[in-house]
Amino acid sequence: MDNSDKKAAIAAYKNREANAGVYALRCAQSGQQWVGYAPDFDAIMNRVTFSLRLGNHVSRTLQAAWNQHGQDCLVLEQVERFDPKMIPTGEALKTRLAHWQQELDALPL
User: Fold this and answer.
1) Which residue of 3, 44, 82, 94 has the fewest CB atoms within a 10 Å radius of its CB?
2) How confident is the model over 50-96, as pLDDT tens digits?
3) Other CB atoms closer than 10 Å to residue 64's CB: what's the count?
4) Closest CA relative to residue 76, chosen from 89, 62, 88
């Protein structure tokens, strides 16, 4: 890949529409679930697994499941996708997260 191809690829990535929404992480072995918000769903699993591999994820219950069962136990699913022009913030986002936590009997992330 030459320099102009790299620049074009970077520009295309920056100009793409982010896939924001609420996601659920499930541990197949323990049955636990966690719900969180992703400004870019396509990148969230990399971010979550990076902090889990380092052993410093903010969710102690998710970190414990990872430590016990490993990466293969986690399944990621987008449960709600937001319209890019109407992404909720503040209390509206908290309401959506609380809804999915209750709906899925999940823990927060």
Assistant:
1) 3
2) 999 999 999 999 999 999 999 999 999 999 999 988 999 999 999 99
3) 14
4) 62
In contact, 52 and 66? CB cutoff 8 Å: yes
Task: For residues 7-30, give the mean pLDDT.
Answer: 82
Closest by Cα among 68, 92, 77, 9 to 38: 77
Gyration radius of the chain over CA positions: 16
**Assigned token pair, 80:** 């709600």
Q: Between 7 and 11, name the one with better pLDDT.
A: 7
Of the candidates 89, 14, 91, 79, the one whose C-alpha atom is nearest the C-alpha of residue 41 is 79
Pairing state between β 33-38 and 107-108: parallel
